[in-house]
User: What shape does this take?
Amino acid sequence: MGKDKKLVEAITSMDEDFAQWYTDIVKKAELVEYSGIKGCMILRPAGYSIWENIQKELDARFKAVGVENVYLPMFIPESLLNKEKDHVEGFAPEVAWVTHGGTEELTERLCVRPTSETLFCDLYSRIVESYRDLPKVYNQWCSVVRWEKTTRPFLRSAEFLWQEGHTVHATAEEAEERTIQMLNVYADFCEEVLAIPMIKGRKTDKEKFAGAEATYTIEALMHDGKALQSGTSHNFGDGFAKAFDVTFTDRDNTVKYVHQTSWGLSTRIIGAIIMVHGDDSGLVLPPRIAPVQVAIIPIAQKKEGVLEAAAAVKEKLGAFRVKVDDSDKSPGWKFAEQEMRGIPLRIEIGPKDIEANQAIVCRRDNGEKTAVSLDEIDVRVGEILEKMQSDMLERARAHRDAHTYEAVTWDGFKEAADTKPGFIKAMWCGDLDCELKIKEEAGLTSRCMPFKQEKLSDRCICCGKPAKSLVYWGKAY
Amino acid sequence: MGKDKKLVEAITSMDEDFAQWYTDIVKKAELVEYSGIKGCMILRPAGYSIWENIQKELDARFKAVGVENVYLPMFIPESLLNKEKDHVEGFAPEVAWVTHGGTEELTERLCVRPTSETLFCDLYSRIVESYRDLPKVYNQWCSVVRWEKTTRPFLRSAEFLWQEGHTVHATAEEAEERTIQMLNVYADFCEEVLAIPMIKGRKTDKEKFAGAEATYTIEALMHDGKALQSGTSHNFGDGFAKAFDVTFTDRDNTVKYVHQTSWGLSTRIIGAIIMVHGDDSGLVLPPRIAPVQVAIIPIAQKKEGVLEAAAAVKEKLGAFRVKVDDSDKSPGWKFAEQEMRGIPLRIEIGPKDIEANQAIVCRRDNGEKTAVSLDEIDVRVGEILEKMQSDMLERARAHRDAHTYEAVTWDGFKEAADTKPGFIKAMWCGDLDCELKIKEEAGLTSRCMPFKQEKLSDRCICCGKPAKSLVYWGKAY
Assistant: This one.
């Protein structure tokens, strides 16, 4: 068992060094390999297949609410990027510039898209003429580039995969409805499929997207008490439409500007899966998103009938994503590997089990072992996976709730910020100055003004002036 | 009907000007919109959804033969691209170079991937150590950039979408087997799903991929008699492995170079679908790939019960991809639109049909109309779609065979090249000089040396020296 132990010991404990624990998992679960290009990561099969499942689940939810997929160029001419002032200020410092095509210098620089509002505006200005052409609810799955100085796998990288939805509407109301609708699609997906509970809310002006009128966000709490912005949805009003001249002729025969939204979710969410559910043995994947849901590990596999019994169990589990590990490694090594990779269920089956017409089903999240009759293993595995999925959500919710604090005095707020990693709920007057002071003195940023507002006090936690809203504050990735 | 007629008249006839007919369809079927960036196209929902279906079908076939998906960076450092001599010579003249990240000049230029052999080599050199790690059968779905001077939607563009598979193996035999296996996956997919028959064969040295030992290809014949290279599969031997030092320790404990393959199919294939199946009324999509398989068009839809009957038919056709067009356009306009977009079946249902408990089913490919009882419309639609799919393949095969010629004399060859658009089969000695002379004097390139070799004569069609192989010659897109 020496080798098996080594595999497990190679991960840093999360309590000892959370950042190193994260990096260890990402590498040892073979989610990611570093590339020779600074800040660009390689998604290996174990990592990419999680993204494939996310795409599949989320895309079905998009299509159910009328989203159509498209593909736009990866390049944006500099003049197009420059058209909306706030937007270019937000993105220009972190884009990659293409200056040469083959051996020739380009007459105009092209940036590799950091996001595609400008390209979609350009498209919509070409194809939208009348109210009959509205709404357009387009989305693309693609990669984008942001030249970040500090990078971490999934959480922040120079290139990353995402989807970006861009819609145009005849009225402001319809745009606002779509903005909220897509935020809800994200939140429901994260809760139901990834077992990650989300706080839904609106960003403060300081934290909103470059060029947006309003940005909405879903915020999750990681195991270490830090927050992760997990998806955003923006309402642009008609700001971009005016900059790009995207107009339509309405029913009343007057020419109007369209109202626009965009919304995105990226591979960053895989970082959330790791940091919400993982433990010191490695990754723990929620059953609904796990590329492999069940690992069947034969015990004493050289004995007669064992591999056949394992294959028969796999056959019976046809409704699930199942792998039999019949490699020549020891069972202990295989257990450690299955745990590291976060495969939700392990089924152990050896000569004694076969004799008893049973197998041992072991849950990855809590280690619970159940002897299950081979006759009903398909039904029982389904039940255990469902239970594990809901337990994981409840556990994540309980952890978040236990790490969500309230503060009504400035001293109490600062003390909580210093000593209690988690969300801190506190009232705010709405002034940028207070937001900046909170960042400066308590080291927290505003995560969002939640849709579910509460009134903890009448006063801003920072300046004591009348409060406008409850805000979730936290340290963020 | 004036407006309806205009929509149809807006397409150039294919016999009059095939290139303009193609461009008209691409635009009027709303497959593509031009972008502000030269040579970069926008895939609109009608175009992108075809690609989504191609991805879905092909990816399932990949996974059935053990392919795993990954994602590698879109950038290649110049030094990495330079490692394999033939490869860099082939691609350097047509890559886009990134020179700046944000406001800073990069210390080393990065090219946007034109293809990713170099990146996969770099990855495999990091993760392959032992024979236990082999084979690796990875694929990625992504976009690539080749700075082409002349571009046409789908056929040749500066940026395009594709999949690129890259594999490494312990032996030369296994690499060769995989190369052929993936070519067969492509050919089967094209025949069974896209209804396009393919000639499978090997490229001459002149036409092979930069850096490959052998390139295999599938070649299709378009309606105008020109050929389209529709997918390629390359065997690299250990050439790249040596350049990138990709080695493994074999069972006998010696260190060996891996053997490598790559294979790709791109959005170019959508051009083939258009040019093989389209007609003067627009696009004709094979049922298995069509995003919408059935358009239900209510006749006199304001009359009582018509829209309800249309909805009931849709309900009954739940196994298919169906849309009801209940917009306020005239039926004639809707017919023209359905034809332009290539939707395989149109179902017309009006008050008289409802009275007779029937609907009219009209095939897009041959205009055949059938009155079908509403009681069995689900079964009949399934049958008609299947029949249409196989008829389309047979029609495409008959067209190709009728435009495939044989030549055994140089004069006969040149005459055929001048007067008979299509494939010309002729013997070849294997010398580059003859290949160049054929290009120069007959205007044809070698499409492939087909797997199904025949012996039309003992002599090279060009020089008269002993022939080595039968070659398909043609004009190519």
Observations:
- Residues 120 and 166 of chain A are 7 Å apart (CA to CA).
- The first helix of chain A runs from residue 2 to 9.
- Chain A has three domains: 10-277, 294-390, 404-474.
